[in-house]
Amino acid sequence: MEPVTTLLLQALPALGGAAAGEMAKKAAADLWEGVKGVLKRRFGADATAVQLVDELRTSPANSPARLDAAERLSALNLGRDPEILGVVQSLVQALADAKAGDRTQFNATTMYGVVGTNTGTLNQTFGKD
Predict the structure, then answer these.
(1) Nearest C-alpha neighbor of 81 from the set 127, 114, 35, 126
(2) Is residue 11 part of a domain?
(3) What pLDDT digit, counting tens, does each position of 72-124 carry?
(4) Is residue 80 part of a domain?
(5) How many domains are contained in the chain?
(6) Within a domain: 123
(7) In principle, which of 39, 66, 71, 121 could form an S-S bond with 59, CB 3.0–4.6 Å?
(8) Integer Cα distance of 70 and 55 in angstroms
(9) Residue 8 in contact with residue 56, Cβ under 8 Å?
(10) Per-residue exposure over 100-119, b if at least 16 CB sit within 10 Å of its own CB, e if not
(11) Among the residues of the chain, which ranges form H helices?
(12) What angle do CA 31, 60, 63 make, to 5 degrees?
């Protein structure tokens, strides 16, 4: 599946999940509308891409309708457009940041151990999940 569709599917639980607070749901909905706004500006308010994004949001999880909308949206290959990909990545990042609000993150690019040096990236999260 192409990246825009995959990212939008990742964002869906924040729009109405039982664990999401009202403020988080509102923020997620606003961000989702921002994605739709970019699509409307790019393709027009009645464009297939806009309709498919609406179908993704309103269809029940794992339903044939959502899977069909995801496949059809993926076929549009919206990830080729840097603006669309960027706004969708921002949506997912903002939702991840909101979810991680009470956690502490530690990021390091070089770690030194007893036997030599490891180079790479280490990400650890401490706190509530």
Answers:
(1) 35
(2) yes
(3) 999 999 989 988 888 888 888 877 776 655 444 444 444 443 434 445 555 55
(4) yes
(5) 1
(6) no
(7) 66
(8) 9
(9) yes
(10) eeeeeeeeeeeeeeeeeeee
(11) 3-11, 22-43, 48-58, 64-75, 82-99
(12) 125
Q: Return the closest-CA partner of residue 7 out of 125, 127, 89, 123.
A: 89
Q: Comparing C-alpha atoms, which of 46, 108, 47, 105 is closest to residue 73?
A: 47
In a domain, 109, yes or no: no
pTM: 0.66
> Mapping DSSP to helix (H, G, I), strand (E, B) and coil, where does residue 42 land?
helix
Helix (H, G, I), strand (E, B), or coil: what is residue 44? coil
Q: What are the contacts of 81-85 at 24+ separation with CB within 8 A?
A: 81/42, 83/38, 83/42, 84/4, 84/35, 84/38, 84/39, 84/42, 85/3, 85/4
Which amino acid appears at position 82 of this protein?
P
Q: Which domain holds residue 60?
A: 3-102
Rg (CA), the chain: 18
